[in-house]
Amino acid sequence: MSGRRFDVAIVGGGIGGLCLAQGLKKVGIGVTVYERDESPAARLQGFRVHIDPEGSTALHQCLPEHLWKVFNETEGDFGQGFTLLTEQLQELLCLHAETRPMDRIARHRSISRITLRQVLLAGLGESARFNKRFVSYEELPDRRLTIHFDDGGSARADVVIAADGVNSRVRKQYLPDAEPIDTGVVALGGKVLLTDGVMALAPHRLLDGPVAVMPPGACSLFMAI
Predict the structure, then answer these.
(1) Between 7 and 77, residue with greater pLDDT
(2) Domain range holding 65?
(3) Strands (DSSP E) along the chain, which ranges?
(4) Number of domains in the chain
């Protein structure tokens, strides 16, 4: 290893892969992220995500100070707490937000998934490479690894990290028997603009912070404004 940079390759440029890349870069480890999306704007999807105090602490440790400041200033209000309701909108449980002074770092947060990904991409430059679809890897005699992509290109690294989701191609090669199990649970998501008409029709209990409706049957509704 003398005289040669130690390189880490991360397959997958989602929130987890990019957060790891920022943390490695922060401590001076060479890292490259390979993402199958054609560009950072290829899939502008997703909603606001909840980040708990442990996740917030991890982001603070991984992000440089200026990006942490952007993240900190773009979070939404998480002060309403969380409510569980019956299908008749009767309250089952209400978890109120803590009234004690919030920790500057380790606290619950709400942030746009799209905004978070943009923050995590900032400053990576050429270390985040798009339109790179992983095909396979091979171990070389010197214990390094070569990654092959579907465009015919390849890259070498000392460590390859799989951050490419539940259907990870890296995992399929490394642990071919560790297949995901289909639980039969299906989730449907969508966004509705809060127009005057929607506000007039929607029960106020569904608009008062994050809420989950839990009927007796095998279904539920989660809603957050």
Answers:
(1) 7
(2) 7-80+103-174
(3) 7-11, 30-34, 48-51, 82-85, 91-95, 109-112, 128-129, 134-139, 145-149, 154-157, 159-162, 211-213, 221-223
(4) 1
